[in-house]
């Protein structure tokens, strides 16, 4: 059973709940596509700088879910694009 993993995920969400809520609110407040993408890029780069690339993977999944819950499907899609197309938004091709 994956009880240990569930507890670890739940604990991570508890520890980062405020940061997730603040980030989702900031991104959701953007009125235009360009400003939304800039807010996402800034949010992910700041999180990665503070917590590292492994934590960023978890954060992006949780942030995309949080934005979906708020009805911001476009922002969630953009965030998933960062996950799919590179290890971090600051990575160079």
Structure description:
By secondary structure, the chain is mostly helical. The protein has one domain (3-84). It is 80% helix and 0% strand. It is built from four helices and no strands. Helix 2 (33-51) runs antiparallel to helix 3. The relative contact order is 0.14. The model is unreliable at 87-93 (pLDDT under 50).
SS class: mainly alpha
Q: What's the number of structural domains?
A: 1
The counted number of beta strands is 0
Shape: globular
| Beta-strand proportion | under 5%
Contiguous runs where pLDDT drops below 50 for at least 5 residues: 87-93
Distance, first to last CA:
39 Å
The pLDDT mean sits at 85
Please give the largest β-sheet. none
Order of helices and strands: HHHH
Integer-rounded radius of gyration: 13 Å
Helix content: over 70%
The count of helical stretches stands at: 4
SSE diagram, text form:
Layout: H1 3-28, H2 33-51, H3 53-69, H4 73-84
Helix pairs in contact: 1-2, 1-3, 2-3, 3-4
Which keywords apply here?
93 residues; mainly alpha; 4 helices; 80% helix; globular; disordered C terminus
Compact summary:
With 93 residues, this protein is an all-alpha fold. The protein has helices spanning 3-28, 33-51, 53-69, 73-84. The relative contact order is 0.14.
